[in-house]
Amino acid sequence: MERIEHRACFGGWQDVYRHRSAVLGCDMTFAIYLPPQAQDGPVPVLYWLSGLTCSEQNFITKAGAQRYAAEHGVALVAPDTSPRGDGVADAEGYDLGKGAGFYVNATQAPWEAHYRMFDYVAEELPALVEAHFPVTAARAISGHSMGGHGALVVALRNPGRYRSVSAFSPIVAPSQVPWGQKAFAAYLGEDRAAWVQYDASELIRTAAEKLPVLVDQGEADEFLDAQLQPWRLKDAADAAGYPVYLRMQPGHDHSYYFIASFIGEHIAHHATALKA
């Protein structure tokens, strides 16, 4: 790994690293915030997955999360949202290709060569972080929009690996909305049976483990009705007896102003589970 950013922040350090990903077949960057408590011993980790068009930079510069991570003694890890590089397939538009990995393992050409973000987030990145930084194996996961989808799916498909999960404005039923349908058809093919493994509203119906789930959704979100539809997740969770706490927040849109307003409560939610 090569450290490419190193900044003092709330008594800890906000760093960015570049490394070669064997899973993705390209160089990747990820951000890690180590709170001051990490100087005295390993700390638990909250993984953050960002949304469409984002990189690791959006979260670390806009969310204001480091203050709360320092307060609770939690490390923050934020990967990029897709493979990158000259040899990596891409498409026109913001919702497919680079910056739009959708946290799936692609099976279709030309995407399958590099787009394996599910395995990267669930396996390769945590193994790398836990091998090289003062962190424990106590993990939580969160994200925004496409990243909220990723956080829910990764947690639901990996029982025992995470202590808690949360999301801001998640795409909860990608099989049912245009963003997800476009991405899944390209990455996974036209067989909708293959899509179910990446659809949180379907996975939650048969989930073997019931994690504490917190979802915040802005009522003024411009994508609420067409792309996000959080009620699909809540209805499926209620039917399955799964504890999903959905909070509709008046006045808030899809931006990082929304995330910054409630990220402290999300980190507290995770800190409680991580230290239980």
Give the arrangement of secondary structure elements.
Blueprint: E1 2-9, E2 12-21, E3 26-34, E4 43-49, H1 56-62, H2 65-72, E5 75-79, H3 117-132, E6 135-143, H4 146-156, E7 165-168, H5 178-188, H6 200-203, E8 213-218, H7 224-228, H8 230-240, E9 244-249, H9 256-274
Parallel strand pairs: 4-5, 4-6, 7-8, 8-9
Antiparallel strand pairs: 1-2, 2-3, 3-5
Helix pairs in contact: 2-9
Query: What multimeric state do the chains show?
Result: single chain
- Kindly report the spatial arrangement of strands forming the biggest sheet: 1-2-3-5-4-6
- C-alpha geometry: globular
How many H/I helical runs?
Answer: 9
Strand content: 15-25%
Core attributes:
globular; 276 residues; alpha/beta; Rossmann fold; three-stranded parallel β-sheet
Structural description of this entry:
- The structure is a single chain.
- With 276 residues, this protein is an alpha/beta fold.
- The protein has a single domain, classed as Rossmann fold (3-Layer(aba) Sandwich), CATH 3.40.50.1820.
- The protein contains 9 helices and 9 strands.
- The protein has helices at residues 56-62, 65-72, 117-132, 146-156, 178-188, 200-203, 224-228, 230-240, 256-274; strands spanning 2-9, 12-21, 26-34, 43-49, 75-79, 135-143, 165-168, 213-218, 244-249.
- The strands form 2 sheets. A 6-stranded mixed β-sheet has the order 1-2-3-5-4-6, with helices on both faces.
- Strand 1 (2-9) and strand 2 form a beta hairpin.
- Helix 2 (65-72) runs parallel beside helix 9 (256-274).
- The longest helix is centred in the C-terminal third of the chain and has 19 residues, at 256-274.
- The chain is globular and about 50 Å long.
